[in-house]
């Protein structure tokens, strides 16, 4: 049974004159031979026989015969699967089976994909002559960039001794499969930070060592990888010591993206779909067989802020009960028109605003922002939500409500002393 | 969140273009004519390729939480992605249509390409011509190859894509259509994701496929079993018995081993291969155990063995000849007869330290209670529930043939096949000596046959499973050898089938205490530890690694408990026997080594399961038990990392190896090891030239190192030097067949033959002849890739 060695004896084009044949074999990495240790003790019936058999076996590890994984390399046993991003390597051998010398042999290897045709031959010059029983050898490499059907077309042309020009070719077809499934999800923080969770699933049939999974941010963002726990000066991967993915396993990578300062200014204006960046993934399998892929540009929908965005710039974490504290809000006009704003502050059951409600904030042009210092106190202990701000655009008589804009922890300052 | 979904799929336009291309190829193939490669049919329009690269952006609302992200292509190609238009909306239906249409085209192509073949008669001529030529070559090879019978290869399995059972009535090669490239057939089933062949998995043997192949049919056919082989003893068997003047061969044969400390040869004049002449010391004979006072009692050793002979010879015939008689009866008789034998010498011997040390085991609670009640004679063993008894029997008979010979008949003709001479079960003495001879000459199939005969003689032959029987040390040893050989032959299903009646090897009748009259005073397990280990390992080869792990953990628990008992100051089984310091140390040593052997099995099993994290951890933990194997173990862990693809971690371990090697005295094997590891790292970095150079350095130290020679040749192939590689391997096989007629080397060689020339079959046949002169019937012929 011929395995992956493509064996094509080409058909006779002109009777009896075919002299050479072409073979190809995909060169995936060799594998290490595995033993099957069966042992017994000296006291058992076979005595030392089994031990002796294992010691004499050249493929065992001497001194540790029961170690299954040996050192003997074996050639690939079948074509195997090939995945997008991996390198397709193949041995191409043209052999002269006849007893005559043939001349001017030209071997050409092309790879036909669904969209293009690539020449993979190392050299395109003809070999002057090929003696009987000799070969022309070539090892071709190609990084696979498309999924689906690929056809390797090997063509040989040569001239026989009687001057006849002959030509034949062979086709080797294979499918390129998808190795990974990548899913992403964005989390928008209160600030302008964006968190990206990427789920990467190995959909091949063999374990994959993930050598690199990184996010290449677009020009607007800086990225921090959150997949390493740093303790001291040693960073340890959140995935543990061995960074490999079993078939069908999924792994979550987390990244934090911050807009660069120059873009952060305009953040209020960033709307709709924005390009975040792309994931760059490098993996390795058996004996360093390498693959690399990039995702398409990841895009996210910027959260909609409506016409006016209000964000809290400064707020203390912990405050004392019934003691006023300051917060600073930022108001950004995200609309296309100028607004004339009026601020109302409504007390809630727990939060009480200080100062005059209903004051004018003045005109705000599109894209412009305004810092708003406010004073507030809480009458109830515990984690309290700041609510009750109302902005009214006097031009359009439109009111915007801002509730739950931030939380603050309210404590009783006297509790400890009294007790 | 807005859902974006993009995909690998190409635009519709591209699908259409692809179809056109495939059609063109299809046409070309049908016509079988040559078309100038430079012609324009295949040239893809430039704009087309750029369109492919733009991935289609789709609004898909079905995935609420996570977005599927498309992996575009490799980085080099993806620059266009950024600017690619997001205009090609591709809905699911269209995609489906496109791809299925594509598929249809593919299959057509596949069919058509495989039809390229040479007209049969022309091939025939070629064959005959070559046959003549090859025959001359073969003659030469035989001369080189003939050498002493001390083969040194154990069978190892090569995973084969096609474990087709070779039928002996196979057509001659000339009748067969010339096999044409199979690469297409691989490619046409991409959806099934066939295991990708990179994992060194142990699969199956040529003669026993998973239940469906011819081999398995043969193995379980009960029809041939009507007349068990052993009922007609072979000449040597009967001779053996007449020599002894005994009526029944089986009982005599068996009894000679029943007593714990007897010589194999004592009651068997034919078997006088004295321990001195066998290289492996028969260490269960008392003379090899200095602490026991055996030499003093030397003359009396025969007593316990000869005494029971006559009673047994009365009972056993009914076992063999009158199988209709209820089996329980002779069994009871057996017990009754033995109850009188109360030989003080035998007792003394049975209590020997070595026996106790090796046989110690901790039965489960239920079994323990039953053994106590047997010992206190609350009730006789005869009343034990049959569910709690072990009643093994052969499950198949005489499955064993000689695959090498079958191949010779098929490819080289009857005449050539006649030349093949291997030992068979009948051509050796029907005893342990013959068995060992078969095992060491690597005729394991014949050895399995012989164990079958010997077990049949013991009343545990074909069809005897489920019938009451008695166990002896020797019957269990025979079972162990049989099952171990089946495992070595990769006949895992057969081994499992025959293991089944043994349950979990913890039934009361598998302990010496159950037979107080036969083994007075002897305690512990009759089942050898190696058999327990084999039983535990077996499921992992049958795709049940979890079960194997469970069993191995049980073994480990017992080993640890016994070690704890020893450290606490009691005997292995926890009883308060005082042991001398010397004996305690010996016992600790033995049980530690057993523990480490169990750990090895666990690590191997985890490796097969591809649970690399635990496998590495387990291998690492073995170092504390086997410090002398530190270098090998660390290198092995490094290789595991390479196998996973983590080259950096592998290097860390290899550096550890280098440090360990530096600390020790200069040892050439360590230098070899370090160089070998370096070569593997180069290999993993795609630096085949450097890897080759490292292998050559190893060869400077040890020119005959078989693994390195093979690996160097493999590197040459990846460097595009097929002829050199082939020449090197061929030369090695011819010069040193003892080392290089190994499955993996032959597999590499035949693979290269296939790549090199259209006459690979002839060259493989030459290899077959070389194999036929040297290898036993256990040779795995799959590696020759002749069928």
Describe the structure.
Chain A has helices at residues 49-56, 261-264, 415-418, and strands at residues 6-8, 20-26, 31-34, 69-74, 82-83, 87-96, 102-112, 117-119, 127-130, 135-143, 148-159, 165-177, 180-188, 194-202, 208-217, 221-225, 228-231, 234-237, 244-245, 250-259, 273-284, 290-294, 298-301, 308-314, 318-320, 325-333, 339-345, 351-354, 359-364, 369-378, 382-386, 389-393, 398-402, 406-411. Chain A has 419 residues and is mainly beta. In chain A, a hairpin with a 5-residue loop joins strand 13 (180-188) and strand 14 (194-202). In chain B, helix 20 (444-457) runs antiparallel to helix 21, helix 21 runs antiparallel to helix 22 and helix 24 (545-568) runs antiparallel to helix 25 (581-608). Mean pLDDT of chain B is 66; it is low at 1-65 and 73-342. Chain B is mostly helical. Chain B has a two-stranded antiparallel ribbon. Chains A and B meet through strand 1, strand 2, strand 3, helix 1 and strand 4 of A and helix 1, helix 2, strand 3, helix 4 and helix 6 of B. Strand 13 (180-188) of chain A pairs antiparallel with strand 3 of chain B, so a sheet runs across the interface.
Structure characteristics:
heterodimer, A: 419 residues, mainly beta, 6-stranded mixed β-sheet, 5-stranded antiparallel β-sheet, 34 strands, disordered N terminus, B: 787 residues, mainly alpha, two-stranded antiparallel sheet
Furnish the topology, listing elements before pairings.
The complex is a heterodimer of chains A (about 425) and B (about 775).
Chain A: E1 6-8, E2 20-26, E3 31-34, H1 49-56, E4 69-74, E5 82-83, E6 87-96, E7 102-112, E8 117-119, E9 127-130, E10 135-143, E11 148-159, E12 165-177, E13 180-188, E14 194-202, E15 208-217, E16 221-225, E17 228-231, E18 234-237, E19 244-245, E20 250-259, H2 261-264, E21 273-284, E22 290-294, E23 298-301, E24 308-314, E25 318-320, E26 325-333, E27 339-345, E28 351-354, E29 359-364, E30 369-378, E31 382-386, E32 389-393, E33 398-402, E34 406-411, H3 415-418
Parallel strand pairs in A: 5-12, 25-34
Antiparallel strand pairs in A: 1-2, 2-6, 3-4, 6-10, 7-8, 7-9, 7-11, 11-12, 13-14, 14-20, 15-19, 15-21, 16-20, 17-18, 21-22, 21-23, 24-26, 26-30, 27-29, 27-32, 28-30, 31-34, 32-33
Chain B: E1 4-6, H1 12-31, H2 46-53, E2 57-59, E3 67-69, H3 79-83, H4 92-114, H5 120-145, H6 183-187, H7 214-220, H8 235-244, H9 249-258, H10 294-297, H11 302-306, H12 309-320, H13 328-339, H14 344-350, H15 353-359, H16 365-375, H17 403-411, H18 413-418, H19 432-440, H20 444-457, H21 473-488, H22 492-499, H23 529-541, H24 545-568, H25 581-608, H26 612-622, H27 630-644, H28 647-663, H29 668-684, H30 688-701, H31 706-718, H32 722-735, H33 737-740, H34 743-756, H35 760-774
Antiparallel strand pairs in B: 1-2
Helix pairs in contact in B: 1-4, 5-35, 9-12, 12-13, 17-35, 19-20, 20-21, 21-22, 21-23, 22-23, 23-24, 23-25, 24-25, 25-26, 26-27, 27-28, 27-29, 28-29, 29-30, 30-31, 31-32, 32-34, 34-35
GO biological process, one term (chain B): vesicle-mediated transport
Protein name (chain B): Trafficking protein particle complex subunit 12
Main location (chain B): endoplasmic reticulum
